[in-house]
Amino acid sequence: MTHDDERLLRRAIELAASARAAGNPPFGSLLAASDGTILVEERNTSLTDRDITAHPELKLARWAARELDPATAATTTMYTSCQPCGMCAGAIARSGLGRVVYALSGEQLDGLKPPGSAFADPPTEGPALYDEARVPVEGYYV
């Protein structure tokens, strides 16, 4: 971890504090160019926006996919106050960002929460109807 990494990670932690002060979950993230220039910053706004997907990492991944060409996105680093959740990690992978640096791990975050506060995964069933479901997909990824 470089001095620049630590500086930018501290800024992400400041953004998390700002999110909490605004009544939202305490998470903040930023996207930086390869030279350490901050391109964009985001805070969690899931409560004030009434949007369960308003995580800062997801917002940055969307921004990068929309605003950066793939070569430029691959040179960026996301700095985030906490390890991205599964939803955000999927968006980050699809956006083509080059690197993610986080402060708290998901396990450390869970250790800071009261017992029983984790989201429960709903029961799932599948796969099913393979022959029908594959029809619109076949040939798409060529």
Automatic annotation (TrEMBL):
Q: Where is the CMP/dCMP-type deaminase domain?
A: 3-120
* Gene Ontology MF term list: catalytic activity
Where does the source fall among the domains of life?
Answer: Bacteria
SUPFAM superfamilies in UniProt: Cytidine deaminase-like
Q: What is this protein called?
A: tRNA(Arg) A34 adenosine deaminase TadA
| Organism annotation | Nonomuraea jiangxiensis
Upper lineage: Bacteria, Bacillati, Actinomycetota, Actinomycetes, Streptosporangiales
